[in-house]
Amino acid sequence: MSNRVSQFIIICEDKLQEVVACRFLKKGWNINQRLIRTEICTAGSGEKHVRDKYANELIALRARSGKTALVVVIDADKGSVKDHNNELNAAAIKNNIKPRSDTEPVVHIIPKRHIETWLAWLNSVEMDENTSYKPKYEYKNCESETHVFIDRLADNCKQNKELENPPDSLKKACKEFNSRLRQLLS
User: Fold this and answer.
1) Burial of 184 (0-12, 13-18, 19+ CB in 10 A)
2) What pTM did the predictor assign?
3) Residue 80 to residue 60: CA distance in whole angstroms
4) Beta strands in 44-141 (DSSP E)
5) Which residues does residue 12 pair with via DSSP β-bridges, in sequence order?
6) Exposed e or buried b for every residue in 70-90, given b needs 16+ CB within 10 A?
7) What residues form DSSP beta bridges with 7?
8) What are the Cα distances from residue 100, in Å, to 74, 90, 110, 167?
9) pLDDT digits over 28-47, tens only?
């Protein structure tokens, strides 16, 4: 019996995060779009949306008999990756749900400041994680223009190539992906 994941649930703040996460899975790991379900914020605070959906999706993941992976994308903004990991754990506890274990296929993708920071880096911009790159790399209504960047990232990840001087939050996301999902995608 295969250990391969048969369904992906992506909880994210906005359309750009959704496009980046879906493209990464489709391009790097040949995941069919039909296997991906997204929970994207349509109104209000994207960060609150992710925290609110998190506990219910953990429950669903644990109840499902097939191999499901939960991918959670939330910007760190001015906080830290660690702070946002703690907030997600607190959201689970608040809903009387045990936080994710080290062996569960639950990946927290937390770009510092925004996903646009990673897009700037992938576009070879000298950047730092305390500066907002949102205005130039927002790609509002033209998200598909990010494909060239995400494809490169996905190819490097698939080949297990180490990234050269990535932002710290991207390095943490890669480590998280490798420890929680890589073996389930083969």
Assistant:
1) middle
2) 0.94
3) 28
4) 68-73, 106-109
5) 40, 73
6) bbbbbbbeebebeebbebbbe
7) 68
8) 16, 11, 16, 25
9) 999 999 999 999 999 999 99
